[in-house]
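Appendix B. Raw example, untouched.
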Amino acid sequence: MQKWQTSERGSAASNHRAARTIGASRHIGFGCDFALRTVEGPSCGPGLKQAVSSRARGLRPQAATGAVLLGSSCCCSSVRAVRSTLEIGLGTLLICLLVWAGSFQFHDGIDRSLLLAVNGSSRAPGLDGFMILVTDFSVPYVATVLSLWGLGIEALQRGWASPRTLEISLRVLGCLIALALAAWLIPTYTHRAAPAIASLLLIAGLWWAGGTYRNLSKETLARLRRTFWLTVVSIVLVEIAMHFLGPLVVQRPRPLAKPNAAWNAALHIVEDEYVRHGTSYVSGHAAALFAMLTPLMWAVRRPVLKVALFSWAVLHALSRVYVAAHYPYCAVMGSFLGFAIATLVVWTAAAGENKAENMAVRVVPPT
């Protein structure tokens, strides 16, 4: 009798070998049944019947054990998935409670002073147009490039399209979307350079993304595919959190709203982003961009790229204060909401994958 046991292994190669062993066991089971049915026929001699029957019956316990281990592995995967879902749900609820409690902690005097200091820096030439580019186009830009790029990686991993086809498709789409964006938005903006630059950046972003299907290794593409879906989960959770937090938090008017008319005349109004309606707490733009960029921050390995992505998200949150759409505290709490939920999703998924990799099945040869 061969002895079977389970042990913890620390590498993906062990998981692969274990999966091959279980799959082989299933095929052995089918082969044993076929062999036993065959030797019962009249065409087989007594010696052959005895040899095949003893060998097939000896392999049957191995096949049965492999099937049991396969079922156990599937059950453990389901349990891990349910556990990860509950952890993400409870963690998101805790983050929302912190953001809700934070709506009662802001200080109007400090917030106004910081707002006037950031907004008052608008005397620099060209700064208004740059901030309009950052505040208006960062979220749709990242959403468009990341969505098309991620769906392309998914199609490539599933074998639905070749790298060359995806490369051409993304580059053509980039040109078409950029032309439509420029034709639609440039006539409506005072700072017309902002949508024009955004259109050019969109072409450049999708042009680069199309080339990655052939230039990046399969391992890197697989990691980016995982990051894409974690980003989707993060942004969905942030949007759900914003929806439920809206009526529960303190309804703080925006800086340019009529209730603040006693002091907001000192604010510099940036053309193309004159927001008076709605509430300031929390900044949905800041939360959304942090939710989209945070999984990429954790996925990339170069510190320079991590710093660049984080700086982009911080600059975007600052731009919401610069155009007087939000108070500084509201932008900070929105950034915290997006960063915290996305980090929770990434870390929970990583912990689940580590547990799965550490559990493998191996066969011990007979002693």
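End of appendix B.
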